[in-house]
Amino acid sequence: MDATKKPLRISPELGVYAEKHGIFQTLQVNSAQVYHRMLQCLLVDKPNDPIQYMIDHLKRENNEVARIFLLGPPASGKHTIAKLLCDNINTNVLTLDNMLANGKSEVANIIHRLNNRNKEIPNTLWAKLILERLSKMDCIKRGWILVGFPKTREQALALQEMGIAPEHVVILDAPDTVLIERNLEKRIDMTTGEIYHTTFNWPTSSKIQKRLVKPDGTSEEETAKRLLEYRRVIHGILNSYSKKYHIINADQPSVDVFSQTLSHVQSRHRSNAPYTPRIILHGPPGSGRSLQAALIAEKYRIVNVSCGQLLKEPVAAETRFGEAIKPYVESRQPVPDVIVLKCMTQRLSKLDCSTRGWVMHGFPQDLRQAEMLNDAGFIPNRVFFLDVPDDAVIERLTMRMTDPITGERYHSIYKPAPTSEVYSRCKINPKDAEENVEKALEVYHANVSELEQFYSPAIHVNADQDPYTVFEYIESCVVKPLSKNPNAFV
Asked: Using an 8 Å Cβ cutoff, are 370 and 328 in contact?
């Protein structure tokens, strides 16, 4: 046989080793971020001695700190969320007001003089004020959250010209009717500058309550005017940060808004570093593993590895390997683990799996199979458990049926047959009988705890909801950086 025509196989240990020791991430993700940031600063600052400048940059720059723009219309809760973020990630909250309060800043003094003469403040002056504050050591070491600025595309461009680039742009938004109602009930403590709300955030101290006043510009007419102006210019902001902005619904409890904001700002933008997804989906029968695998494979162009399908293909092709499997398939007996593992490793060793990645479902089903897969060198970097209550599983499976003529699947509750004629010819798979489903659930529950421990830390997903909501959550975990735990799944 011509050796050049042999199917190319890549050792599974290659990708595992590189990811375990952080080679791809360290050499390509972090270095790319440092290089990008350094180049950005060089172009903006134009130092006379670029070599010494880069040395100084590496000594002082911290690419892991927060650099966040927190924007939104009036009454969207920007200041409340900024304060909660500050307390949680120990960073600096910056507003135009607190930067202007710095009496030692010459830029701030110029802006005050222009304000006193009712002169328009140039965008470049605002950008200089912000750059001056960001140059302070506390912002360099701990990062910053800039609240409520920029407000226009022109201001965003002025910041970019100064080299001020956020890692995350969070935009809080809600319907105008909600924002107008919120603004009407806003109160401010003139002593501390703290903002309160008569319904959502009322102080318990009677002393504070007495000194609260209604701020200017919060009437219905004034708020509507400000909202109209915000809606008019926000598209310019979105275009300026098209790859960085993330909109969060502010029409929900502040704790939920904060949780979603924190989750987003702690994520890192996806890099071009080599990353080969190796995903295993676990779950009880009827949890939607096949659908989720298909969605993931389609979007990220990785290989969908279905254990059941892989065992059927050689049987249908009547290969020698298929002949060994056929008696077990026909008698509906479990195929021996050694045969299943051989089938799986042959598929996972192919070039497309090694280079593009894979998503596997239907295997492993117990601890022994997981250990065998691990020993063969196929170690996942994402393991999901799709959690569905038993009663929901029984409802999903025992009520589904198939039209033998069209192959279309139906469900008595979620997708009824369109006509009585179609319904009458539909067939129920014997394995979907309630007693068979209950047996399958017993087997799953007998093995799931050991699998959870073996693949700790695994990711649990509430799969008892809309499948596309489930997919969005799985997807968010797939694109996040790999676990820093070197022993994960190994």
From this structure: no
- Count Cβ atoms below 10 Å from residue 66 Cβ, excluding itself: 20
Radius of gyration of the chain (CA): 29
Contact 186, 199 (CB under 8 A): no
Dihedral sign of CA atoms 201, 207, 209, 211 in order: negative
Phi and psi at residue 65, in whole multiples of 5°?
-75, 160
Environment class of 184 (CB within 10 Å of its CB; exposed 0-12, middle 13-18, buried 19+): middle
d(CA 402, CA 286): 15
pLDDT digits (tens, 9 = 90+) for 406-453: 888 888 888 898 998 999 999 988 888 899 999 999 999 999 999 999
DSSP 204-235: S-HHHHHTEEPPTT-SHHHHHHHHHHHHHHHH
* Backbone CA torsion sign across 464, 469, 473, 479: positive
User: Going along 210-357, which residue ranges are E strands?
Assistant: 212-213, 245-249, 278-282, 303-306
The angle subtended at Cα 398 by Cα 397 and Cα 404, nearest 5°, is 85
- Sequence-ordered alpha helix ranges (H) in 357-398: 367-375, 390-398
Query: Judging by DSSP bridges, how do beta strands 143-147 and 459-462 pair with one another?
Result: unpaired
- Supply 241's token pair: 């940060």
Cα 225 to Cα 206: distance, rounded to the nearest angstrom:
34
- Cα angle vertex 262, ends 217, 203, to 5°? 45
Q: What order of strands is seen across the sheet that includes strand 382-387? A: 303-306, 358-361, 278-282, 382-387, 459-462
Reduce the secondary structure of 6-30 to three states and give it as a string: CCCECCCHHHHHHHHCCHHHHHHHH
pTM: 0.51
Give the whole-angstrom CA distance, residue 297 versus residue 304: 6
